[in-house]
Specification:
The complex is a heterodimer of chains A (79) and B (351). Helix content of chain A is 5%, strand content 47%. With 79 residues, chain A is mostly beta strands. In chain A, the strands form two sheets. Chain A has a four-stranded antiparallel sheet with strand order 1-8-6-3, with no helix packed on it. A four-stranded antiparallel sheet of chain A has the order 5-4-2-7, with no helix packed on it. Chain B contains twelve helices and 16 strands. Classes of the chains: A mainly beta (79), B alpha/beta (351).
């Protein structure tokens, strides 16, 4: 089963939106659970995105996209 | 094919990193290898550095090796210089190069000269990690570049990477060098969102293993035959954009990234200009007595007859950085200014 990549609720603070900055791995790459896979900006803070599971990365949000709190940035699919 | 490696938690998939992340990775690695290495500067332990240079370092290495200082560059540069003479390997974080003004005596007369003055008895293996550059409406004291100010004094090695691969490799090289090294990065290239989205070409594939990039070796980003565009740091990216536009007009521009200011790759500069016969140099430091002048001097001293047209410099005018946004924009070595210079060189002839 695939697992959604979302920004953990506690990292948002009072902010309502953020911006996707970079993906470290390419779409389709195999990543390990808890690895840093991308970066996101909320206010002036740079947040690290960690892989929620081990599997194949599916990127759903391009860099420079403005995202809301529940936005699904990508998915981890089983390999 | 990517394969998983669950034991180490690492992946064999290729990584594309920002310069900030790549530079930091080198510092982490060298700090782990070398118990005598420590980091000192303002807002690095608790905040992780104004530009995120030290994020996570106090957590791993503790506040005795990641030292937050008062706002006193003179003091902590002096501490680091003395510590280096006594066998430590300090890394000094200075967020804005503008701030080195208050520690010229420590840098110019002690850090840079003690190896020589002591007849080689004392080495001073310290590395400065410094941000520079404008474009943020930050005015005259937080926007400068100042390569030449540091480069003018013998004994200081200065590098400025233009992508993540070089950011990591040059950081390893600096941290392993037994001399004073200055690793400088343009704020716009860091890859911090609030300083501007990462430039696509500043992001690059970065191996997880340690590697070094040699000092004094320029890098050809794009080969060309009609003219050479020399840049360093952000002006490499501006030159690459200019080269793309020139290509659509049938002009083949070579883009040369100096990477090191000191030592300067004079052979690499001359080789490229001898091939193309035309030269434009772009730099965000002040025009007069700067890197652009030194690059032109290489050609003038070796063989000016290789030039088919007078060379042109695109640098910061000799004025304090304006606070006004449109005035600052007009002063920066933009793609447009590089293009205008390239066209004038292509239209020009030898006098």
């Amino acid at each position: 089963m695939s697992v959604d990549i979302v920004v953990p609720e506690e990292l948002w603070g009072d902010s309502l939106e953020g911006v996707m900055l970079t993906w470290i791995y390419q779409d389709g790459a195999t990543v390990q659970k808890d690895q840093v896979i991308g970066e996101l900006m909320v206010e002036k803070a740079q947040l690290e995105l960690h892989a929620p599971a081990t599997g194949r990365l599916r990127i759903l949000t391009a860099p420079e996209t403005v995202v809301g709190r529940s936005h699904v940035l990508g998915r981890i699919e089983p390999t | 094919m990517a394969h998983s490696n669950a034991d180490t938690g690492s992946s064999s998939a290729e990584r594309t990193l920002t310069m900030a992340r790549a530079g930091r990775e080198a510092v982490f690695s060298e700090m782990r290898r070398n118990p005598n290495m420590f980091l000192i500067g303002e807002d690095i332990a608790k905040l992780g550095g104004v530009f995120g240079t030290a994020v996570g370092m106090a957590d791993e290495f503790g506040i005795e090796r990641v030292i937050d200082t008062p706002i006193s560059e003179t003091g902590f540069v002096g501490i680091a210089t003395g510590a280096a003479m006594a066998g430590m390997r300090p890394i000094v974080e200075i967020a804005f190069v503008d701030f080195i003004g208050v520690c010229f005596n420590q840098i110019f007369n002690f850090a840079a000269k003690t190896h020589y003055m002591s007849g080689g008895q004392y080495k001073v293996p310290m590395t400065f990690m410094i941000g520079y550059g404008g474009g943020y409406n930050d005015a005259a004291q937080h926007s400068q570049t100042l390569f030449a100010t540091l480069a003018h004094v013998p004994g200081i090695r200065i590098v400025t990477p233009a992508d993540a691969y070089d950011a990591k490799g040059l950081m390893h090289t600096c941290l392993r060098d037994d001399n004073v090294t200055v690793w400088m990065v343009h704020k716009r290239l860091w890859g911090l969102g609030w300083l501007g989205f990462p430039l696509p070409k500043a992001l690059s594939r970065v191996p997880e293993a340690d590697y070094t990039v040699p000092l004094g070796q320029s890098r050809v980003w794009r080969e060309g035959t009609d003219l050479t565009l020399v840049g360093l740091g952000l002006t490499v990216h501006n030159s690459l954009q200019a080269a793309e536009q020139l290509a659509s007009q049938g002009i083949s521009a070579e883009v040369l990234d100096l990477r090191s200011v000191v030592p300067l790759d004079r052979d690499g500069i001359f080789r490229s200009v001898a091939k193309t016969g035309r030269l434009v140099v772009a730099d965000e430091d002040y025009l007069s007595f700067g890197v652009t002048s030194e690059v032109l001097a290489v050609v003038a001293e070796r063989d000016p007859s290789v030039l088919k047209a007078a060379a042109v410099r695109v640098a910061y005018p000799d004025v304090p950085v304006p606070f006004s946004r449109p005035m600052e924009e007009a002063c920066l070595p933009s793609v447009e200014r590089i293009l205008a210079a390239a066209r004038s060189v292509m239209n020009g002839s030898k006098r």
